[in-house]
């Protein structure tokens, strides 16, 4: 099966081909709430580490997705590249980092964030009813507030789909004793 | 609260503005498997019925998503319109229709399908290992095979997000005694 390109190499190539389009850094993230209901939202990839097989996003610790991941660490990522008509579905487990756990990791992402995006984290919690008195006064954004967090998704299953031509190409990748096994399947 | 536009009207407008881009008909669908893990994939909207507050897709009855929806009817839809920078998150319950339940509904979608897409449904089950002997001989595609199915998602919760400007606009919509209640919240 060694002729089949790894999903990591495929994803690196998709990112490379679409690097000029900011939307290609958006993917959909699904989590499960306490009632067993799925939830999805679009998020921004801050880093894909092909060696560690992980993806990082930044988020607000007060968000719904953090509460859901605290009770169920399983997550599913769907990354569709409209330009190349390729889709990656990634089965992951999530770990949430905030400044009391890992200051350096947090600071790394905070430093890369433009000031207008930093301000977001000093406001009222996401999902709270909007009130007219939500006036934000922030004097210093050099350091992140305690609710700024990084979520790292470790990938343990992957599926590649390419619908640019017929027949569609679909490959399942599974971790078997620390080695990825690829299986072409019916699309 | 009557000044807030309904999510249905907003979605109609987003679809209208993006009608020339086929990719704007794609959305992400999350389901939950028997182990409580989320699963996402990109699917194509075949119909949004704003009065019935439902969305239809077509699928293969032998697909993973059908198995998952049979054990847990809860689904979550994330529809991101890259052109307008609007996102709709829809909480739904799913119902699967196939020809033994509702022939007319099935036939309606089958008739609209190009022949090359119809052929897909006569092949081996999706997810099955690809073998070289998968040669497809189909003499007549006028009628759908028993595995052709329609999934109807009834929407019971919605969230609208617009990130085209700062501050971002986020509105939660909930069904309260058959009436939708809108609540602007922190994005």
From TrEMBL, chains A, B:
<feature type="domain" description="Pyridoxamine 5'-phosphate oxidase Alr4036 family FMN-binding">
    <location>
        <begin position="5"/>
        <end position="96"/>
    </location>
</feature>
<dbReference type="InterPro" id="IPR012349">
    <property type="entry name" value="Split_barrel_FMN-bd"/>
</dbReference>
<keyword id="KW-0560">Oxidoreductase</keyword>
<dbReference type="InterPro" id="IPR000659">
    <property type="entry name" value="Pyridox_Oxase"/>
</dbReference>
<keyword id="KW-0285">Flavoprotein</keyword>
<dbReference type="Pfam" id="PF12766">
    <property type="entry name" value="Pyridox_oxase_2"/>
</dbReference>
<protein>
    <submittedName>
        <fullName>Pyridoxamine 5'-phosphate oxidase family protein</fullName>
    </submittedName>
</protein>
<dbReference type="InterPro" id="IPR024624">
    <property type="entry name" value="Pyridox_Oxase_Alr4036_FMN-bd"/>
</dbReference>
<keyword id="KW-0288">FMN</keyword>
């Amino acid at each position: 099966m060694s002729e089949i390109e790894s999903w990591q190499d495929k994803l690196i190539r998709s990112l490379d081909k679409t690097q000029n389009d900011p939307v290609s850094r958006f993917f959909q993230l699904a989590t499960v709430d306490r009632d067993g209901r799925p939830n999805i939202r679009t998020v921004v990839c801050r880093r894909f580490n092909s060696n560690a097989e992980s993806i990082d996003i930044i988020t607000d610790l007060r968000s719904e997705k953090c509460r859901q991941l605290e009770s169920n660490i399983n997550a599913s990522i769907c990354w569709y590249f409209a330009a190349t008509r390729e889709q990656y579905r990634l089965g992951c487990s999530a770990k949430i980092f905030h400044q009391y756990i890992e200051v350096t990791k947090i600071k790394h992402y905070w430093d890369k964030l433009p000031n207008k995006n930093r301000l977001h984290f000093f406001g009222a919690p996401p999902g709270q009813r909007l009130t007219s008195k939500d006036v934000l006064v922030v004097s210093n954004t050099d350091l992140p507030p305690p609710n700024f967090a990084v979520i790292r998704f470790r990938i343990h299953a992957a599926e590649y789909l390419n619908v640019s031509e017929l027949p569609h190409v679909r490959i399942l990748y599974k971790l078997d004793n620390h080695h990825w096994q690829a299986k072409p399947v019916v699309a």
